[in-house]
Amino acid sequence: MQLKTLIAAAPLLAVSGFLAVAQTQQVPPTSPMPPARPQNAAPPTAAPPVVEAKPVKGQVVQQPDGTMLSTDLVGANVRVGDQEKAGSVSDLILAKDGKVEAVVLSVGGFLGLGSREIAVKLEDVQITSDGKKPVVQLEARKVDLEKAPPFKSLASIKAEQDAIKARQERPVPPSATTPPRPVN
C-alpha cells in the first residue's frame, strides 16, 4: 500500500520541487538592444536641462508667533458679555489686501438647526482663549445677536437678484389673466 501511495505522490513531489527551484533561481539581467533607428530619423535629443528652483517671493515658511490660522478661528465659540455661549464663528470676511474685515457668526438655533448668520467688524470683538482654542468675546446680549439683521454674502445677494429676475421674466399663464367664463 505504501508503494502505491509513493507512486501516486511522485508527480506531486516533482512539481513542487520544480516550483521551489523556479522561485529561487535568478535570471541574469540582460541589456536589451536599443531599437534600430530608421535611416531618415533625426538623432536622439539630449535630456532637457535641469531647472533650478528660485525662492518664491513673499513665501512664509513658518507661522509667526502671535498669529493664528483661519482654521483656528472658524468654529470657535462666541461668548457675549455675560460669558453665555451665543454661537460660533462660521466664516471671515477678508478685504482685497488680505486683512480680516469682519467675523461671520452663526447664532440662534439648536444644534445648528434654525441658526442664522450675522457679521461683526473685527475691531468690535475680542479674541481670547479658553486654554485650548480661541474664543470670540462680544459686548452684546444673546437676544441682540439672535434678532440682528442677517448677514448676506455677495453670492447670496446675486442669487436673490437672479431669482427676482427669473420671476419677472417668466411668462404669466393665460389662466391667470383670463377671467373665468360663466357656466350655463
Main sheet makeup: 6 strands, mixed
User: Given this structure, which CATH class of the domain at 70-160 is correct?
Assistant: Mainly Beta
Helix content: 25-40%
Radius of gyration: 38 Å
CATH topology of the domain at 70-160: SH3 type barrels
First and last CA, distance: 109 Å
Residues in β-strands, percent: 15-25%
> Which sequence of SSEs, written as H and E, runs from N to C?
HHEEEEEEHHH
Q: Mean pLDDT across all residues, rounded?
A: 78
Structural class: alpha+beta
Number of strands: 6
Number of helices: 5
Structure summary:
This protein has 184 residues and is α+β, with helices and mostly antiparallel strands. It has helices spanning 2-24, 70-73, 142-147, 154-169, 174-177; strands spanning 77-80, 85-94, 100-107, 116-121, 125-129, 134-138.
Plain-language structure description:
The chain is of the alpha+beta class and 184 residues long. It has a domain at 70-160: SH3 type barrels (Roll). It is built from five helices and six strands, in the order H-H-E-E-E-E-E-E-H-H-H. Strands 4-3-2-1-6-5 form a six-stranded mixed beta sheet. Strand 2 (85-94) and strand 3 (100-107) form a beta hairpin. The N and C termini lie far apart (109 Å). The relative contact order is 0.09. Mean pLDDT is 78; it is low at 1-7 and 9-22.
Identify the notable features of this structure and list them briefly.
flat, SH3 type barrels, 184 residues, 5 helices, disordered N terminus, single chain, six-stranded mixed β-sheet, alpha+beta, 6 strands
